[in-house]
Design brief:
Layout: E1 3-9, H1 13-24, E2 29-32, E3 46-47, H2 49-57, H3 61-64, E4 70-72, E5 74-79, E6 82-88, E7 99-101, H4 104-115, E8 121-124, E9 129-134, E10 140-145, E11 148-157, H5 164-168, E12 173-175, E13 180-188, E14 199-203, E15 208-213, E16 217-225, H6 229-235, H7 238-247, E17 265-267, E18 272-274, E19 278-279, E20 282-284, E21 290-291, H8 299-314, H9 324-357, H10 367-373, H11 377-387
Helix pairs in contact: 1-4, 1-8, 8-9
Length: 397
């Protein structure tokens, strides 16, 4: 049976970017996606300047940005004391001083079409992995799926936070704790909506609304205390509508389009990571290795950077064997950045939980307004969010 150099399980941003980078460099790669298309409810939509610059380096940015998207130039908190601009992407030195909010399915469709032009790339849809192949020494040598098997020198698990491959490899993820869950829903975007509304958090005393602007819709996240879903479902949709009317009054004219509680989708917020991202013949990247809270929208960025780091280490090996020390090197390069991002998110989660326990407001303190008024602070915050800590540079072959 033919043995491929690399099989990637999972056709999300991390898996597809890695598949493209490897095939572009001449490393024959097969990506296995369990679904028949890329459409999901409430997948991350944020393409940061780092990702856009990567696609520019690949010669794809101009074409990618023809896909419908909304360029988000600000990240703001709206508190009882007034709005605070936390990050101003116009201050980022980049050809792309914004976050492109593009439906993930459109992004992945674009990438799949470009990857299909490469002779070494194969994408198999509707291919759900059911098992791992191993040799007599326990080295992973491929995957088993419902219709057969695929052998490979390396299997990369990019199959998300509920990774089947991770479970099969017995690499457990450790939850680091999250104090919040989110109910996601959409409302239509209209021509008269505030033009500078991009990525916004609107704070009440004990919860918040997150707003992401798309080309024709707003994605809205209504926060709940962790484990509060049953109580929210019992209360029904009206408290959610009331929160929208109070916190985002310019959406009041359409909030009744949120007709029933079933129009919302629960996103159970998690912050977790795997202690070891690899076994002989197997590497985990993206959410399979570490889960980032959706607050801040860094999950796609971290997955893409994992893919770049992995490609930098794997391309020089070509179709040859992949020593486990190479896989360990990928983790060693990326794990400090992941830990830094998660540590920041955990601080926010713990502060919110402590405020709730003490009956205090979870809104950021007034001093934040003074801090963000200091020259350079908004630009530095935007740059940190645009690139993340220690972003890997693609080594082109």
């Amino acid at each position: 049976m033919d043995t491929r150099p690399v099989v990637v399980v999972g056709g999300g941003p991390g898996g597809m970017v890695l598949g493209y980078l490897l095939a572009r460099a001449g490393v024959r790669t097969t990506v296995l996606e369990s679904h028949g298309d890329f459409a999901r409810r409430f997948r991350g939509d944020s393409l940061h300047p780092y990702t856009l610059e990567l696609f520019d380096q690949l010669g794809l940015a101009e074409e990618l940005l023809r896909v419908a998207h909304h360029p988000a130039r600000y990240f703001r908190f709206h508190t009882p004391h007034g709005p605070v601009t936390v990050a101003d992407y116009a201050k980022v030195r980049s050809r792309f001083p914004y976050v492109a909010l593009m439906p993930q399915a459109r992004f992945l469709d674009f990438l799949a079409a470009r990857a299909a032009e490469l002779p070494g790339f194969e994408l198999r849809m509707n291919t759900r992995v059911t098992g791992l192949l191993r040799d007599d020494d326990g080295v992973v040598t491929g995957v088993r799926h419902r219709d057969g098997e695929v052998r490979a020198r390396l299997v990369v698990a990019a199959d998300g936070r509920f990774s089947k491959v991770r479970a099969l490899a017995e690499l457990p993820a450790t939850s680091l704790g999250a104090a919040t869950d989110l109910l996601w829903f959409t409302l239509p975007r209209r021509a008269g909506d505030p033009p500078d509304a991009d990525v916004d958090l609107y704070f009440a005393r004990d919860n918040y609304l997150g707003l992401l602007g798309g080309t024709d819709t707003w994605q809205v996240g209504y926060s709940l205390p962790k484990g509060g879903y049953a109580a929210a479902r019992e209360a029904g949709v009206e408290p959610i509508r009331a929160a929208v009317r109070e916190l985002v009054p310019w959406l009041a004219d359409r909030v009744d389009q949120l007709a029933e509680f079933s129009d919302t989708t629960l996103l159970s917020v998690d912050i977790s990571r795997v202690h070891r991202w690899h076994r002989p013949g197997l590497l985990l990247i993206g959410d399979a290795a570490h889960v980032i809270s959706p607050v801040g929208g860094n999950g796609i960025l971290m997955a893409v950077q994992d893919a770049v780091a992995a490609a930098n280490h794997l391309v020089p090996l070509g179709a040859g064997p992949v020593p486990e020390e190479v896989l360990a090197a990928v983790q060693a390069e990326r794990e400090p950045a992941i830990r830094a991002v998660q540590a920041q998110q955990l601080r926010i989660e713990r502060q919110a939980a402590k405020a709730r326990e003490r009956g205090r407001s979870i809104a950021p303190p007034r001093v934040l307004r003074l801090i963000t008024a200091i020259p350079g602070v908004r630009g530095r915050a935007a740059r940190r969010n645009a690139y993340g800590p220690n972003p890997p540079a693609l080594i082109t072959p």
